[in-house]
Amino acid sequence: MPTTKNTTDNAPLQVADPEEARKTPITSEDAVMVTHPRSPRAEQYRTLRNSIVALNPESAPRTVVITSALKGEGKTVTSINLAMALAEMPNTRVLIVDANLHAPGAEEIIGMPRRQGLSELLSGRLSLDQAVRSLSVAGVAILGAGAAPKNPSELLASDRMKIVLSQLKQRFNYVLLDAPEALAISDASLLGAIADGVLLVVRLSTTPRQYVEQTHTMLETLGGNVLGTCVTGVAGD
Ligand SMILES: Nc1ncnc2c1ncn2[C@@H]1O[C@H](COP(=O)(O)OP(=O)(O)OP(=O)(O)O)[C@@H](O)[C@H]1O
Ligand SMILES: [Mg+2]
Fold first, then answer.
1. pLDDT band at residue 230 using 50, 70 and 90 as cut-offs
2. What is the pLDDT of residues 90-116, one digit of tens each?
3. Strand ranges inside the chain, DSSP E
4. What is the distance in angstroms between the CA of the first residue and the CA of the last residue of the chain?
5. Is the dihedral of CA 169, 177, 27, 121 positive or negative?
6. pLDDT for the residue numbered 4
7. Does any ligand 1 atom lie closer than 6 A to the CB of residue 92?
8. Residue 185 CA: which ligand is closest?
9. For position 236, what pLDDT does the model report?
């Protein structure tokens, strides 16, 4: 069943100042690339980055969907840290898009207030310039989810979403789309079909292998290009 986290609060969200987050320090323990940049976990994100970059020898702008079979496997944490690992490369600008319109989580981990974002952008109420906010980490920006829409799947499957992605590819080298869990919600498969690649996050200790295989097959059947898996929850992480 789709989660309702953060969707019960119907207070209208404000338009962001695109510069508001530039001076906000990121302090979450989950953002290991900032808080523990020399840790083994940070190195794992650099290794993941290297594999993704190796699949893109021409350094073309790339859109990558990050999903998992089930809720809570580490998609948002992976998106944020992978973005920072990518932005460590010279001349590389990276955008984190919170495309989990059911349970947005990226702004909270980064330590910034929820603002209008993807949902308002896709419904034509916000411009790209108003929606994208730079972070305090050089080269990284975020497009938050915005208010919970009544029709998330229709918005994400719209022609407008394709246009937004192509506009974002002109501004960023990598656009990482933090999507909902793929088995319960169709949004990840919809996004996978229009993005360049899909990364499957797997919480090794808890997610049954058959769910991972089922998700992998489903994403590819629906037109996604699964680049690989990223394992979370390994002892010692
Ligand atoms: N590599 C990791 N190793 C250990 N724990 C992790 C790792 N990545 C994330 N976590 C933990 O897992 C929990 C869920 O992480 P996160 O919010 O990224 O999951 P999610 O897949 O985005 O969840 P949701 O489906 O609700 O969007 C967090 O408490 C986080 O601290
Ligand atoms: Mg999440």
1. very high
2. 999 999 999 999 999 999 999 999 999
3. 62-68, 94-98, 132-134, 140-143, 174-178, 197-203, 226-232
4. 29
5. positive
6. 41
7. no
8. 1
9. 52
Domain ranges of the chain: 32-232
Kindly indicate whether the domain formed by 32-232 is annotated with CATH number 3.40.50.300: yes
- Centre of ligand 1 to C-alpha 110, Å, is 13
Q: Which atom of ligand 1 is nearest to the CA of 178?
A: 22
- From edge to edge, which strands make up the β-sheet containing 132-134? 132-134, 140-143, 94-98, 174-178, 62-68, 197-203, 226-232
Residue nearest to atom 5 of ligand 1 (CA): 233
Neighbouring CB atoms inside 10 A of 171's CB total 14
pLDDT value for 21? 86
| Closest ligand (CA of 70) | 1
Regarding pTM above 0.90, the answer is: yes
